[in-house]
Every structure is written in C-alpha cells, then in structure tokens.
Amino acid sequence: MASKAQLASHGATYIDHAKKMSTHIAYALVVYTMLLIFEVSPQVKGSGMAIWPYFLLVVLVALVILPCRNLERKWQLIDARHEDDVEGAFRKDLFKLWGAAIGIPTALMAIIIIIP
C-alpha cells in the first residue's frame, strides 16, 4: 500500500482508477442517452400526449444516474485505500458499465418492437 508520493519517488506509475472510471461513466451516460434518443424514442408512439417519449427519456436517464454515482464512489474509495491488484475488478466494472449503457436501450427497443 504505497502512497502516490512513494510511487513517484520510485519511478512507478500510479493509475488513478477513480478518474478513469469517472471518465468512462461520463462517456457511457452520453452513449446511453444518445441510444435512448435515437433507438427507443422513435419506437415510442405517443397517442394523445406528445411529451410522453421525452418524459420517458428523462425517467430512464434518471434511473441510471444513482448506480453510476455509486460505481464512481466505489472507485474513489478503492483509490483512497491504495489497493493493489485492482485491474481485474476495474475491467469487470467497465464491462458491466458499457454492457448496461449499450444493452439497456437496445433491450428496451427490442421489447417495444416485440410487444405491440
């Protein structure tokens, strides 16, 4: 459990997983929102209320913000404890994040198309 200063003095590179995760979360939220706008919203046909697809879009984005924030906090804590050998867990969390960012809108679109 070496500090950043100790790693720097020994020439080792310190990887800020919290910052990397935060960047991935930001990009994943943008991709998720864009997929909702361009895949799901056109499939939702509002009869009567034209604002319905937009309201649904806001709700779907709001539902993923809390899990994303919790994931970000998790990596802030891991970095604060200076844990070693976290690359596997980091890649696993990235896989889950991007799987959800791409999979949820695609699954919603498929459900909307299948269920008339």
Describe the structure.
This protein has one domain (16-114). The protein contains four helices and no strands. The chain has helices spanning 4-9, 17-40, 52-80, 87-114. Helix 2 (17-40) runs antiparallel to helix 3 (52-80) and helix 2 (17-40) packs parallel to helix 4. It is elongated and about 55 Å long.
By helix and strand content, what is the structural category? mainly alpha
Our Rg estimate from Cα atoms comes to 19 Å
Overall number of domains: 1
Q: Tell the overall outline.
A: elongated
Low-confidence stretches: none
Using DSSP, what is the number of strands?
0
Amount of beta strand: under 5%
Helix content: over 70%
Terminal residue distance = 56 Å
Order of helices and strands: HHHH
Tally of contiguous helical segments = 4
* Mean pLDDT value: 85
Largest sheet: none
Could you outline the blueprint of secondary structure elements for this entry?
Layout: H1 4-9, H2 17-40, H3 52-80, H4 87-114
Question: Which characteristics define this entry?
Answer:
116 residues; mainly alpha
Give a quick summary of the entry.
This protein has 116 residues and is mainly alpha-helical.
